[in-house]
Structure formats: C-alpha cells, structure tokens
Write a structure and sequence with these properties.
Length: about 375
C-alpha cells in the first residue's frame, strides 16, 4: 500500500516536471531546430494600411490591376469633381491676365481680372457651385493658350475668391487661343503625373509627355507597344505641338488605347461583380510584376467617378512600358500599400483641407484630407518613383 502511494506521488512529480520543461523550452531554447516533421509557423503577411482588402489581380498584357475593396465608405456626395464642375459651368478656369466678370453662386458679379499677364504655370479658377471642389494632380484641362494639368491635390471651398491655380503645361509648342478652358475627361498617365505631383518640374513634365515613360528599361527587355519613335511621329503629325490628348489619340502611336482600356475594363468588371457588402475604393497597379502605383478613395462612389479616367491613364503607361509579362502577387500589393516612414511635408488650409507627402527611398505617398463637412481622407496616392 505504501509503495503504491509512493509510486503515485513520484509519478505525479515526474509529470509536473515534464510539463514545466515543455512550457519553459520555447523561451530558453529558442534557437533549437524544430522537431522533425513539424513545420515552423508561417510568418505573418504584411497588412496594408487602412481597412481594405486586396483582391486577385486583373491581368492583361503587361498590366496587373488589383482591386482594393472596403466594407465601409465615407459619404463623399458633398464634393464636386473638376470634370463635373467644368461640364456644368459651375467651375470656370481662365488664363491669368484675362479680363472677365462672372457671377458667383449668390448671383453677385465676381471679377477675375488679374494685373499680370498670362503664365504657363498658373491659371485662375472660380468655384461657383454650392459644393467644395476636389482637384487631383494630373487632371487635364484643355483650351486656353495651352493644355495644362493640375499640379497638386487640393480642395477649393464654396464661396472662395478666384484662386491662382498652379498647373503644368502638357502642350509644348502652342501659345495661342482663347482664354476659356473646357472639361477634359483625362488624367495624364503615371510617368507624367509623377513629374507634376512629386517633382514639380515643368521640364520634367514635358520630357515625360515626349518620351511616354520615365522608366529606365533594361536593354534586353521587350520593346513597348508605344515606342518613343512613334510618339515623335505623333507629335510631328500635330504640327509639333505636344498636345497630350492629340498625341495619345493619334493613329501614329500604332496601337488602340481605347481597345486596351475596354478589355481591362471588361475583365475588371467581371472580377468585381460578385462583391457582397463591399465596394471597390481603389486599385494597386503593377507593370511587368512590379507594383508601381495606387489610387485609393474615401468611398466607392468617389472611386467610380474617377475610374475611367484613371484606367485610361494606367493603360497609356502600360503601352509605353516594356511588354514584360511577369505578374505581381497579392503579397507584393499588400506590402506596397503599407504606411511609409520617411520625410513628411504638409500643407493646410484651415477648415478646408490638409495635404501631406511622405518620401521613403523610391516610394512616395500623398494624402488629401478634407476637414469639412467632417474630417476624412479623400484620396491616397502611392507611387514607386521612377528616378
């Protein structure tokens, strides 16, 4: 009897010591090899910034478009887009130095007379609508003495005085015409948009229009569908004026951008048609296996209002880059969307918006946050800088 009690106590002590050893082992012996036949736990995948989910890519030729979806979106109906405002006449853009009286939203006359002459890099904008106006870097306005693109994301509030608007020319070679501008359903492609939004250099913008892409391709890489030689032919066919839309709509470029856009749109619509309780709020775009660009908005509605303009810009970039068929992974896209940790620059118009830019190595992140009617991040641009 005593022996049985002793054996039970001894066995219990052994079991306790064994459990203590197992519990202690990972902490003390962290460098030991895992037991044979047991795989180490998978490392956590990088989580993208924001409450987003990344879908599988939509593939066509050398472009991969990852839809970014969210279950929740902000109410962005209070904001007017540039294309909508110019189309209805609620927004006016004129050359600096033009003499004109217009009526504001309250019916009172507003003078947009400027004391100095016209300028390549500055226009005058009047928001006559009852909604704040959202401007995105790279949006094109056509007419005036030259076609221009918006230089920086910003918001123009209701009732604001005539705004000196910083722009970049994308029509080198023309300086004639009326002072009036029309709606242009175009955003310039990423290589040009980068030069305007990040570099802020007019000569670099012209060079990007002229060359198609600023990516330095390997000499062994497959040739792009739109070569620089074809672009020069298109420019020459337009009396040597670098009118952005005319160049990329010219038959001289040798490919149909419209057909390329239509096919990507068909595949994109099919890939996102079955969403339940989620909306597409943005995309990550990869060229030849490299995540290079992302536009994300505060709501699915706002994304829809810009989507066709953005898709066309992505397509032009794809056609101007080498036709490499490699495909980026969802993990690459998720890592690309991470919050950057680098030098930050901010600008604020109190009560209207806050603009910020973070540069980390070859990456740049630009965010536009509306401060009214309530704080919300309207647009987030992330890009892999080409130089």
């Amino acid at each position: 009897m005593e022996r049985s009690i002793f054996a039970a106590i001894f066995g219990g002590l052994l079991g306790f010591l064994s459990l203590a050893f197992v519990a202690h082992r990972p902490e003390c012996d962290a460098n030991l090899e895992p037991l044979a036949g047991l795989a180490p736990p998978p490392s956590p995948q990088p989580k993208p910034e924001g409450d987003w989910r990344i879908l599988d890519p939509v593939l066509y030729e050398n472009i991969s478009v990852f839809p970014v979806v969210a279950a929740y979106g902000q109410d962005t109906s209070a904001f007017l887009t540039l294309e909508e405002g110019l189309g209805t006449g609620e927004v006016l853009i004129r050359e600096r130095g033009s003499e004109e009286m217009v009526r504001g939203r309250d019916g009172r006359p507003v003078s947009i007379l400027q004391t100095t002459g016209a300028s390549v890099n500055q226009l005058v904008l009047v928001n006559r609508s009852k909604r704040p106006l959202l401007l995105l870097a790279g949006e094109l306005v056509s007419g005036g003495k030259q076609d221009r693109v918006i230089g920086k994301d910003r918001i123009v509030p209701v009732g604001a005085p005539p705004l000196p608007l910083d722009v970049f020319c994308v029509e080198h070679g023309r300086w004639t015409g009326s002072s009036k501008f029309a709606a242009a359903p175009t955003i310039v492609h990423p290589s040009v948009r980068e030069r305007a939004a990040v570099d802020q250099q007019q000569t670099e913008v012209w060079n990007a229009v002229r060359s198609g892409t600023t990516v330095q391709a390997d000499s062994a890489a497959p040739a792009p569908m739109i070569s620089e030689g074809r672009l020069q032919s298109a420019i020459a066919g337009n009396a040597r004026t670098e009118a952005y839309e005319k160049i990329y709509q010219s038959a001289a470029v040798g490919v149909s951008i419209d057909d390329f856009v239509a096919e990507v749109q068909r595949r994109f619509a099919s890939a996102t048609s079955g969403l339940k309780g989620e909306r597409v709020v943005g995309v990550v775009v990869a060229y030849g296996g490299e995540a290079a660009w992302s536009d994300i908005f505060a709501s699915g509605d706002l994304f829809d209002r810009y989507w066709h303009k953005l898709l066309r810009s992505y397509a032009v970039e794809a056609l101007a880059r080498p036709t490499v068929r490699a495909v980026a992974s969802r993990e690459n896209a998720g890592e690309f969307l991470r919050r950057l940790n680098g030098r930050e620059t901010t600008e604020t118009e109190p009560g209207v918006y806050r603009w910020s830019e973070i540069i980390e190595g070859h990456l740049a992140e630009i965010e536009l946050e509306a401060l009214q009617p309530k704080p919300m991040k309207l647009h987030r641009l992330l890009l892999h800088r080409t130089t």
